[in-house]
Amino acid sequence: MKKVLLATVVVLFALSVNAQVQFGVKAGLNVASIKTDPDMSEKSKIGFHAGVIAEFSFGESFALQPGVLFSQKGAVSKDNSDDQLALNYIDIPITLKYKIAAGNMKIYIGAGPVISYAIGGKWKSAAGDTDVKFGSSDTDDFKPLDLGLGLGAGLEISSFQIGVNYNLGLSNISPQSGTSFKNNVLGISVAYLFGGKK
């Protein structure tokens, strides 16, 4: 994990030399689910995400937007809404954006990797809460590291960005053989970049 973060910092630093850079804040709604195999009959869990972003602009049409976000994920049992899995992650999305001018705004589409690391979680039920165990052994519940693909689109109006994104989980976060758990998150967010128009 440390090597991945170090490589990310080095790449972003190199890109910033020839790019216009802005920094900002981002927050929004998560509609999270977990794709399971075998199917465990779960439904979506509502949460939120919030954190900081940067945007490296290359001309009028292209930009690279990395971020560091606190993100709530998990799932709810279809049979009993009191039974929930609540997972908390630090997400590092790195999104390449393509922008199209439309009057006084811009429409953008974007895609890129999402690196996530679990910082806590709870199994919740009417009987009480139990801590989720993270690790790579058979006695653990989930692996802490998660990799995904982020896809999104939205509008830029001056310094504001309003977007919809989907984080498709690529990693099996289950440490047990014969089972598969993959995080999927639909997000709706608002961001504000400091420094005025690009």
Topology diagram in text:
Elements: H1 2-16, E1 20-37, E2 42-43, E3 45-58, E4 62-77, E5 84-102, E6 105-125, E7 128-131, E8 145-157, E9 160-169, E10 180-194
Antiparallel strand pairs: 1-3, 1-10, 2-4, 3-4, 4-5, 5-6, 6-7, 6-8, 8-9, 9-10
CATH architecture descriptor: Beta Barrel
Sheet with most strands = 8 strands, antiparallel, barrel
State the helical fraction: under 10%
Structurally, the number of domains stands at 1
Work out the strand percent. over 45%
Give the C-level CATH assignment. Mainly Beta
- What structural class do helix, strand and pairing data support? mainly beta
Strand tally is 10
Q: What is the global morphology?
A: elongated
- The residue ranges in which pLDDT falls below 50 over 5 or more consecutive positions are none
On the 0-100 scale, what is the average pLDDT?
A: 90
The CATH topology, please?
Porin
Order of helices and strands: HEEEEEEEEEE
Strand order, sheet with most strands:
1-3-4-5-6-8-9-10
Distance between the termini: 33 Å
How many individual helices?
1
Q: What is the radius of gyration?
A: 18 Å
